[in-house]
Amino acid sequence: VEKEKKRVEQLERKKETQRLLEEEGSSTKPKISKPVMPAKITRAQIEETIKKDNMGQSTEEVKGKQMSHLEMPLEENINRIVPEEGQVDARTIEDAIAALSTGQSVDHHPERRLRAAFAAFEEVTLPRLKKENPNMRLSQLKQMLKKEWMKSPENPLNQLHGAYNTK
């Protein structure tokens, strides 16, 4: 008999807690409406609205007044423009390279001629440096010679950039 009483009380408590839960849930839940997202607008629609605003016309009038392909003026084909005098028309890579080239042959490996060029430069410049600085040692003269060599136009490494910089 006591077990039956406990079971009935438990059922009543469950029902009561369920009812309280439902009451609490309904009172705390505010009705939230989802924010309405605007539909996507295409570029064509934006341009159409701009035209409509500028002209003060409706979209039906704009559609009705569109010209046919026969009434539209022809646009110049930029692919077939004849170059003016002084301009270069290069349609292939070879033509472009030929147009951009300076006409001078480029020394692709100046480092190969570096020793011989330095020896010739040293032969000419060292006697001049000895006359200008008679009290200096040979090692000091060689240091000065090296500094001059780095700036000299006779240096093959400078000739590569020299041809570019003279233009």
Annotation keywords:
mainly alpha
Query: How confident is the prediction overall: mean pLDDT?
Result: 80
Q: What profile does the largest beta sheet have?
A: none
Total helical elements: 7
Q: Report how far apart the termini are.
A: 115 Å
What this model shows, in words?
The model has no long low-confidence stretch (mean pLDDT 80). This protein has 167 residues and is mainly α. It has seven helices and no strands. The protein has helices at 2-28, 43-55, 59-64, 93-100, 114-132, 138-151, 156-165.
Chart the SSEs and their pairings.
Layout: H1 2-28, H2 43-55, H3 59-64, H4 93-100, H5 114-132, H6 138-151, H7 156-165
Task: Please provide a brief summary of the model.
This protein is 58% helix and 0% strand. The protein is mostly helical and 167 residues long. The radius of gyration is 45 Å and the shape is elongated.
